């Protein structure tokens, strides 16, 4: 049986104003959301899209002097085992929107993004701001991963098994790495740049301005619920075939592109410059 593709729910159509948060009800702890290459793509875009002045400010705060060093700093949170639950937020299967009182009682990716933004705009010490920036740069991408706005009962697809090109997978792992892996260049030490270059062929995602982290996570929630992801009502045992890849790879890349553009706008806002 094949996963069935569908249409992407767009902002302004099915999006609703809602708060976002985390509810973890004992499902198996999921792996991190995007692969390392996914985060590298998002932060590469952010560095290129922000201002020179913002890049100078980021470099001074993180003690980095190049795009490559900034991109590696974006992976810092993946190396913090005590912060595994920071990477996602889940809702009950019955949810039709996300509610902070219900979903974020123990913290969530959105809460940590908003806290990091507050720290960066405060008079906190340099070390505190540096950590906040690394958290922010990482978790903005996590808010754009559709299964990160998934259901607590199955760990955002962690317990939904299937096959991908002949190998056993979980639905979560398809979104973590398999979709992006279909356009990675395994022979290149910087294979993730192949994904970044994909946009020159396929076109860039719309630059959605004047949106908040809450808006972004709400958008992701509704993308998660569309037929395209094959998530809602998935009985397990599906084969994620080339049709599934062609539909959802584009969604994944658009989400990473939005991440980079939105992170760039925040960096410009925080650090200024032209």
Give the spatial strand order of the biggest sheet: 2-1-3
Count of distinct strands: 3
**Terminal-residue CA separation:** 53 Å
CATH architecture: Orthogonal Bundle
Helix content: 40-55%
Description:
- With 274 residues, the chain is mainly alpha-helical.
- It has one domain: P1 Nuclease (Orthogonal Bundle).
- It is built from ten helices and three strands; from the N terminus they run H-H-H-H-H-H-E-E-H-H-H-E-H.
- The chain has helices spanning 36-49, 52-62, 67-73, 100-103, 109-120, 126-142, 171-181, 192-202, 213-224, 242-271, and strands at residues 161-164, 167-170, 238-239.
- It has a three-stranded mixed sheet, with helices on one face.
- Helix 1 crosses helix 10, helix 2 crosses helix 10 and helix 5 (109-120) packs antiparallel against helix 6 (126-142).
- The longest helix is centred in the last third of the chain and has 30 residues, at 242-271.
- The protein is globular, with a radius of gyration of 18 Å.
- It starts with 35 loop residues before the first helix and ends with a helix.
- Residues 1-31 have low confidence and may be disordered.
SSE layout:
Layout: H1 36-49, H2 52-62, H3 67-73, H4 100-103, H5 109-120, H6 126-142, E1 161-164, E2 167-170, H7 171-181, H8 192-202, H9 213-224, E3 238-239, H10 242-271
Parallel strand pairs: 1-3
Antiparallel strand pairs: 1-2
Helix pairs in contact: 1-3, 1-8, 1-10, 2-10, 5-6, 6-10
């Amino acid at each position: 049986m094949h996963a069935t593709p569908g249409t992407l729910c767009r902002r302004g159509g099915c999006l609703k104003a809602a708060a976002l948060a985390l509810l973890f009800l004992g499902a198996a702890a999921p792996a991190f959301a995007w692969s390392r290459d996914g985060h590298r793509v998002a932060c590469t875009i952010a560095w290129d899209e922000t201002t020179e002045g913002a890049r100078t400010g980021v470099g001074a705060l993180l003690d980095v002097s190049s795009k490559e060093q900034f991109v590696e700093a974006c992976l810092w949170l993946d190396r913090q085992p005590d912060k595994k639950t920071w990477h996602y937020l889940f809702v009950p299967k019955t949810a039709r929107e996300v509610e902070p009182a219900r979903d974020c009682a123990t913290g969530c990716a959105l809460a940590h993004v908003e806290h990091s933004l507050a720290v960066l705009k405060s008079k906190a010490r340099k070390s505190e701001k540096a950590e906040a920036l690394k958290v922010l740069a990482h978790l903005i991408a996590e808010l754009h991963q559709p299964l990160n706005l998934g259901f607590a009962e199955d760990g955002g697809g962690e317990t939904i098994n299937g096959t991908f090109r002949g190998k056993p997978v979980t639905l979560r792992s398809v979104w973590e790495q398999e979709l992006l892996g279909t356009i990675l260049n395994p022979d290149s030490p910087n294979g993730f740049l192949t994904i970044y270059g994909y946009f020159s062929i396929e076109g860039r995602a719309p630059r959605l301005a004047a949106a908040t982290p809450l808006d972004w996570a709400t958008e992701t929630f509704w993308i998660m619920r569309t037929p395209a992801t094959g998530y809602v009502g998935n009985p397990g045992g599906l084969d994620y075939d080339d049709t599934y890849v062609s539909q959802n790879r584009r969604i994944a890349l658009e989400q990473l592109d939005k991440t980079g553009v939105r992170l760039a706008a925040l960096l410009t806002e925080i650090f200024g410059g032209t």
